[in-house]
Design brief:
With 509 residues, the chain is of the alpha/beta class. It contains 18 helices and 24 strands. The strands form 7 sheets. Strands 1, 2, 3, 5, 13, 14 and 15 form a 7-stranded mixed β-sheet that branches. Strands 18-19-17-16-22-23-24 form a 7-stranded mixed β-sheet, with helices on both faces.
C-alpha cells in the first residue's frame, strides 16, 4: 500500500494528515501558533512557527502511523492565502509575515490602482486592488520599510515558504498565486506588466506550476527532521479554499461550497474565467488544471464567534472546563432557544473590515437593534445569523454572474454546528450537503499529491475514488426563510447607512 500526506497550514494551526490512496485517514497531528497584532488592523506571524509546526506534525504523524517512509510517496501543502514572506539573499526571513487578514494597506491599494488603472488591473488579475492581497503588502513594505525592501530577493506565500524549507525549491502554483495580484489569472502565469509597475523584479517570484504538478522532493535536512524519505515527492498543492474544494469533490462546473472557518467563503467551480467587473468577488485559477473558481469572502466568520466567546462567554467556558463539553456546543444550546432573527438583533461581522461585497477595510463590527430584552444567548445567535447574511451577500453576487448552484456543501469548523448549518440552509434557501471526509484542505492536497505521483490520471478521477459522494444534510424551512428574508433586507441597508461613519471613525483612530 502506498500513502500520501496533506499539510494544511492555517492561520491558527498547522495540521498534517496521512492518507492511503483510497482516501482513508491513517494518522494526523496538529500544532498551534500565535498571531500577532502590533497595531489595530495588523496581523502578522513568524514563518519559523509554520516550519516548526510542520516538522513536528510530519514526524508525529509518521511515527503514529507505523508506515514505512518509502511507502509515503507524495506530499501536498494547503495554505492560508495572500500572506507575504520576504527572504534576503541568504534565504533568511527579513520581517514577520503579513497575513491575509491584515488591513494596513489601504493607501497602497489606491497606489496600485493608479499605476495600472482599475479596469486594467481587473482584466489582468481578475480582481481589484485589495488590502488582503499580497501585492499591496509588498508596496507597503516598499513605502514604509525601504531597508527591508532593499534586502529582498525572494517573495513567497506561506505554504510556499514551507515548501522551500522542505525541498529547497522556489515554487508556487496557480490557485495560491492568483491571490497575490501579480498573476495573469486568465493566462495562468506571472504578469510582467504588474510586476514592472510595482518595481518587483521577476527574479523575486517563484516558478508557477499547476496544482497537481511535482515541484520537487523532500530534501536531506527535512528528511532527517521528519523521518520522510528524500524520494517523497512534493506537488504544487493549493490555496486553502481551492484545496478544500478538491477535498470535497467540488471539481466540476456548477459545484459549490460554503466554508465557515476564521473567514467565510462561498465558492463555485467554473470551466472558464468568469470575472465580476465590479470586483466584488474573486476569480482565481483553481486546483484543477485549466479551470477557475469564483468566490466571495467575508473576513469575520468563525472569527466573530471566537471573538464573542473569548470576550463574553466566561460562564460557558467554565462550564466547558467542568463538564468536558465543547464550549461551542454549550453556546449553540443557548442560541437554539432564541427565535429566528434574534428578536430583532442584527450583527454585521466586519471585525477585520470586509471584502465581499463592500471591499472596505474601514468598516467595523456592529450590533444593531439592541434592547433591554436581549440576553447573551440573543447575541450568540445574532452573530451566527449575521455571518450567514454576510455569506448570502456573496451568494447574491454569484447569482448576478449567472452562477446558480442548486445545493451547497458546507465545511469548516462552523459547519460542525447543527444550528449554524440550519441557519445557513434557511438563509440561503438551498439544500445543504455534507461528505464523509472531515479533512477538506488536507485531503484536497493529498488528492493532488496522488495525482502528481501518477496514482490517478486526473483530479476528478482521484476525487471519485478518495472521497465518494455527498449526501443532503438539511433542507430549507420555507417559513424561516421568509422571515430571514425580511431581516436580510434590513441587514443589507445597514452598511450603506454606516459607511460614512466608518470612515469618520477610522480618521480619528
Amino acid at each position: 500500500m502506498k500513502y500520501v500526506i496533506g499539510i494544511d497550514l492555517g492561520t491558527s494551526a498547522t495540521k498534517t494528515v496521512l492518507f492511503d490512496t483510497d482516501g482513508k485517514e491513517i494518522a494526523s497531528a496538529s500544532r498551534e501558533y500565535p498571531l500577532y497584532q502590533p497595531h489595530n488592523g495588523w496581523a502578522e506571524q513568524d514563518p519559523a512557527d509554520w516550519y516548526n509546526a510542520a516538522v513536528e506534525t510530519l514526524s508525529e504523524t509518521a511515527q503514529k502511523s507505523g508506515v514505512s517512509a518509502d511507502d509515503i510517496i507524495s506530499l501536498g501543502i494547503s495554505g492560508q492565502m495572500h500572506g507575504l514572506v520576504m527572504l534576503d539573499g541568504d534565504c533568511e526571513v527579513i520581517r514577520p509575515a503579513i497575513l491575509w487578514c491584515d488591513q494596513r494597506t489601504g493607501k497602497e491599494c489606491e497606489e496600485l490602482t493608479e499605476m495600472l488603472g482599475r479596469e486594467k488591473l481587473i482584466e489582468i488579475t481578475a480582481n481589484p486592488a485589495l488590502t488582503g492581497f499580497t501585492a499591496s503588502k509588498i508596496l507597503w513594505v516598499k513605502n514604509n520599510e525601504p531597508e527591508n525592501f532593499a534586502r529582498c530577493e525572494h517573495i513567497l506565500l506561506p505554504k510556499d515558504y514551507l515548501r522551500f524549507k522542505l525541498t529547497g525549491d522556489f515554487a508556487t502554483e496557480v490557485s495560491d498565486a492568483s491571490g497575490m495580484q501579480l498573476l495573469d489569472v486568465p493566462g495562468r502565469c506571472w504578469s510582467e506588466e504588474v510586476a514592472s509597475a510595482m518595481g518587483v523584479p521577476m527574479s523575486w517570484l517563484p516558478r508557477v506550476y499547476e496544482s497537481p504538478e511535482v515541484t520537487g522532493h523532500i530534501n536531506e535536512e527535512a528528511s532527517k527532521l521528519t523521518g520522510l524519505s528524500e524520494s517523497t515527492l512534493v506537488v504544487g498543492g493549493a490555496g486553502d479554499n481551492a484545496a478544500a474544494a478538491v477535498g470535497m469533490g467540488v471539481v466540476n462546473a456548477g459545484d459549490a461550497f460554503t466554508t465557515i472557518g476564521t473567514s467565510g467563503v462561498v465558492y463555485a467551480h467554473t470551466d472558464g474565467p468568469v470575472i465580476d467587473p465590479l470586483g466584488r468577488v474573486h476569480t482565481f485559477c483553481c486546483a484543477v488544471p485549466g479551470c477557475w473558481h469564483v468566490m466571495g469572502v467575508t473576513q469575520g466568520a468563525g472569527l466573530s464567534m471566537q471573538w464573542f466567546k473569548n470576550q463574553f462567554c466566561a460562564a460557558e467556558t467554565l462550564e466547558s472546563e467542568r463538564t468536558g463539553d465543547d464550549v461551542y456546543k454549550i453556546t449553540d444550546g443557548e442560541a437554539e432557544n432564541i427565535t429566528v432573527g434574534s428578536d430583532g438583533l442584527l450583527y454585521l461581522p466586519y471585525l477585520m473590515g470586509e471584502r465581499t461585497p463592500h471591499l472596505d477595510p474601514d468598516c467595523r463590527g456592529v450590533f444593531f437593534g439592541i434592547s433591554a430584552m436581549h440576553t447573551r444567548a440573543h447575541f450568540i445567535r445574532a452573530v451566527m445569523e449575521g455571518v450567514a447574511f454576510s455569506l448570502k451577500d456573496c451568494l447574491e453576487v454569484l447569482h448576478g454572474m449567472k452562477i446558480e448552484p442548486d445545493s451547497m456543501l458546507l465545511c469548516g469548523g462552523g459547519a460542525k454546528s447543527p444550528l449554524w448549518k440550519s441557519i445557513i440552509c434557511d438563509v440561503f434557501d438551498l439544500p445543504v450537503k455534507k461528505i464523509k471526509a472531515a479533512e477538506g484542505p488536507a485531503l484536497g492536497v493529498a488528492i493532488l499529491a496522488a495525482v502528481g505521483a501518477g496514482i490517478y490520471p486526473d483530479v476528478a478521477s482521484a476525487c471519485e475514488k478518495m472521497i465518494g459522494g455527498a449526501t443532503v444534510s438539511g433542507t430549507p424551512d420555507g417559513e424561516k426563510t421568509a422571515l430571514y428574508n425580511k431581516y436580510y433586507d434590513i441587514y443589507g441597508k445597514l452598511y450603506g447607512n454606516l459607511k460614512g461613519s466608518f470612515k469618520e471613525l477610522r480618521a480619528i483612530m
